[in-house]
Amino acid sequence: MTMEFLDLPPMLAARGQVRLPGSKSISNRSLLLAALAEGETDIRDLLASDDVERMLEALQALGVRWSREEGTDNYRVHGVGGPFPVKKGDLFLGNAGTAFRPLTAALALSGGDYRLSGVARMHERPIGDLVDALRQAGADIEYVGNEGFPPLHIRPATIRPGGVLKVRGDVSSQFLTALLMALPLTGVETTIEVVGELISKPYIAITLDLMARFGVDVVREDWQRFTVPGGARYRSPGVLYVEGDASSASYFLAAGAIGGGPVRVEGVGRDSIQGDVRFADALAQLGAVITVGDNWIEAAAPAGGRLRAFDLDLNHIPDAAMTLAVAALFADGPCTLRNIASWRVKETDRIAAMATELRKVGAEVEEGADYLRIMPPAVLRPAAIDTYDDHRMAMCFSLVSLGGCRVRINDPRCVNKTFPSYFEAFATVAAPVPVVAIDGPSASGKGTVGARVAAALGWHHLDSGSLYRLVALSAERGGIDLDDEVALAAIAGDLPARFEGERVWLGTDDVTDAIRSEQCSAGASKVAVLPAVRAALLGRQRDYRQGPGLVAEGRDIGSVIFPDASVKIFLTASVEARAERRYKQLIGKGLAANMESLMQDLRERDARDAARTVAPLQKLPDAALLDTTDRDVEQAVTFVLDLVRDHGLRGAN
Fold this sequence. Notes:
alpha/beta, UDP-n-acetylglucosamine1-carboxyvinyl-transferase, Chain, five-stranded parallel beta sheet, elongated
């Protein structure tokens, strides 16, 4: 099966504002508490995502009625006022840890027969510490597969409530969250003692805050002992608003810090109950300019432009800390992320995955059991990023594009887990390096106009047609047959070409005139139809897209190479006008030329170019037509520059 991917172009800057989707952690906790509570709860701004869908499906299967207000993310949940009424069920929970673990505890105390399963990765995520704690209370839970991991079979059991339950706190805070939310079902005072250091304390704070809103106040002693009072029952708070997701805010705040900014996220602020808002504090330590309001946070780049190197303990923000790993690529020295062992048991082994993908873009990475040390590269390398079915990997690595580097995100739909519209939201704040794409028939003046427009704007210039001419010239000099597709593709992949104004260089040789010969033009036509050659030059052409902008001309430049070009132009002229220009060029160089022969050659070339299956000559629907039959070069350049300004683009000059 062919993997889906998303190509992100190099970004010039980041600026704007984003309304965050609802918090995953708050959404799934709120749904479960509303289901177990007495009364109806209206939950506003619930996150629309795969994980929340799995929770909603499970609650419905367990006898909980809920409804959605059409056209909104507002839900009404009819609480069952205690254990679930459906006593037998087979639940599939995907890779949703925020559904699987809390439901495991609630079902174990509901006196029914249930089977819980998920995707393959969920079956690799440990749950043994939670099961051990529930067994202390009398729960009957069987591992269907590997010991200590899902799937699970929960059987009816005589629960022995009260007393003290012990649970490890150094693997996942979700185990403690699950126990805390489920224990009020017993009606008996119970104390939970945490064994070892409790990680991700801010997530426990979310749990305690939400339980209190539903009428259950847990007594906490130094994050080591938690007592659920006897006789506690969940009661609906009536209406509950879900905050924006603070973990998702991290990508946009980092974008502002890396890409200039300011970028503002709306939906979280100084009064947020989510610990991941402290990501903004971490960015401030890196030198970013942070401003915080009641319901928003804003980030902009440091005055010096580059982030400061850092060495941070990130135990308190494990999810948002992933964003710092990519932000390290833009720091002024080596960066260390410490106390992140919980990454190993997330949607993927995030320490290993992050190290692997950071190396692809050029970073040197040292990977430890609970840390990463990252040496940022001098120049980022384009790369195809594997995402491991992990939404946060996909979102984090979108930030690489802000380094003026194109990046491919494999399996981009994995963001559906928490933020289905992430890439659309990213596009609203990240501005791509602008491209002016000029196509048209041979000898229409694309190269001359393109070079002068680039010079006027102070942008980079790419004559893509010259790349094919350079391949043909290199093959001719190396004695390589123009039908040898493999050898020609190898040449194309390692072509030492550069463009300086209207001059073209191959290594140290100025080949501007050599590639304009009729022999070289004919050779270029032959190699340009070879798929392997075009594929080899595709990435190479895209790498010319660098700030402050690019003017590029050539066949398929606006359809295949830069389909998102800001301005597209189809530059043409009559056969007679083009032949006359070519005639004057040749005569000016002291070469023999014949007008009739030149016109016939151009007609035949146009026909071949229009008929070929690979990159045929055609005007794109979104391209402006520029006919230069009766225009000189300066008039054509003025036309293009006016069009650029009409699109709100500015030159560097």
